[in-house]
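This is your field. Have a critical look at the following sequence-structure pair:

***
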Amino acid sequence: MGRDGVPRLRLVVVAEAASGPRLCRGCGGPLMPSAKSTAVFCEAACRSRHWRRMRRAKSRTEAVNAGVTTSCPQCGVAWTVGVDRLVTAVYCSPACRKRAWHTRRARSSEA
């Protein structure tokens, strides 16, 4: 994922021509000559990685379309739930989480 929160997907063009080697749909590497004619991935790990990448991209797209946003209770920064940060995130950064903890601790010691 890029710094701007947009997922970066590496798209690979699969060669179907008989003149060149067949390429893996996930990593772009060449398929083994002994691979089945219907094979599109070079190995199971590459297939799994591609599936996870596509699932993540789909969930991010759905989150953006839903438009659910939340904000940090410490500094007020807003973000789209499930895209910029985890769905369960409360604070925008570890620094804000730590600052909130110190604030709570100071209040409890005063009382």
